[in-house]
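Comment thread on ticket #2218

A.B. wrote:
> Attaching the input chain for the structure job we discussed in standup.
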Amino acid sequence: MTEQRARRTGRRERMALRAAGPASDPCPPGQIGGSYKPLTDAEVQKIYGTALDLLEKLGMGDVPSRLYTDLLAVGAIDNGAGRVLFPPTLVQTAIDQAAKTFVLHGRDPERSIEVGGNRVHFGTGGAAVQTLDMDSGIYRPSTLTDLHNFTRLQDTLANVSWFTRCCVATDVPDNFDLDVNTVYALLKNTTKPTATSFTLAEHVDPIVKMLDIAAGGPGAFAKRPFMKAHISPVISPMRYGEDAVDVVYECIKHNIPMSCITAAQAGATAPATLAGFLAQSLAETLASLVMVHAIQPGFPMVFSNWPLVVDLRTGSFSGGSGETAVLNAASAQLSNWLGLPSGVACSMTDAKAIDAQYGAEKGITSLAAALAGGNLIYESSGMTASLLGASFEAFVLDDEMHSATYRALRGIEVTDENLGFDVICDAVLGAGHFLGNQHTYAAMERDYFYPSLADRDEPRTWAENGAQDAWGRARARAQDILQRHQPAYLSDEQDKAIRAQFNIL
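C.D. wrote:
> Ran it. Output below, let me know if you need it in another format.
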């Protein structure tokens, strides 16, 4: 009787521990990728060689005057026909002197992440102009309120390693007010590393003053920048965009790390062949790197080569295709081969509903990019409808999907203890099973991820519990988080100081 009571007590204690969650996360962000290599070494060399040829023989057009002067000063060549050429030695010097790893700071230092190597982090991006309304299940124009709500929702999600505004507040018509209120929403609702974009270069300086208020005083933000800029200084095919280049200069001036994003589209602004696309897109992203090198060698820049695909039958963007999966995986492979901090874009489903298409496209594309070792995987949380939409339900579902991906990346630890020779012998010669064995209990908490949204009940139990689908479970979870999580990451004094200087809406 005493032995039976002890067994029941031990079982209750174990169940209580499991209900409280594992002592450590079996699949945290920052797992190592790089095992998937869609390109052979010879193919990598050929693509890189073609990219160098494009930069040396075709070069870049529409070079703004200030950048033109800086490029020629480091060894670029004016071909006399309106294009600036980059000798291979210049490109290689830019690669050699580039920042290979750097920290993306969070306002909370515990939430900072290191970018580079083969470590994988999922985050956000996008500029969705529509939001999937949780009440109606129909898309509507995105609002500033949506942006605040998305920001505080993701603040609770462990697998969103950094947050870039996922939607555009379409109810804020003035561009400066839009940039200001976007940054304010990030400051108020999260202490993770963040990212934003600047419509014009003249918006950078005043917004840095707002960031200084949150950081603790004039000049404080530049000492430990917790927000990076998303900039697309290259317009495909093979030319610079003056407004974006001006933003680059201002960001470097204020020590704002950058993701310089190339976003060519196969068959539209880049070749339809995947190899040709990769060669041009790599050349264009290298042109961004040479630009940064000409302004300030080694300045922190995420090498954000984002291959995008269009449906050549209709010309519409296709974010969930198999081509998107393999192209972004190849982009990560190329960036890692160069030793540069890589940024790719995956999990951009074309589905509008939270349905089977949604799950299949997100799972395939995000897993491919992670296995290839993409350091920062943008657009990977919350995006729907070919980047036109953002969804609260998608955020919580994607967070759970990322845990499964990280678990796959973690792999299998083969040790004498894990091989369990003695445990197997004891089970075979003793109880005949492994249930209740301490070896099993240890593995249960250490090696397995247990989803809270994915349904693993038998059909009868599922039916008795309301036969709910993933969309419904995710909606309930998102609504619960938004009701409970009301962060106040700006003090009253900081908030008043910001509102005194800016039109906070």
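A.B. wrote:
> Thanks. Noting for the ticket: The longest strand covers residues 227-231.
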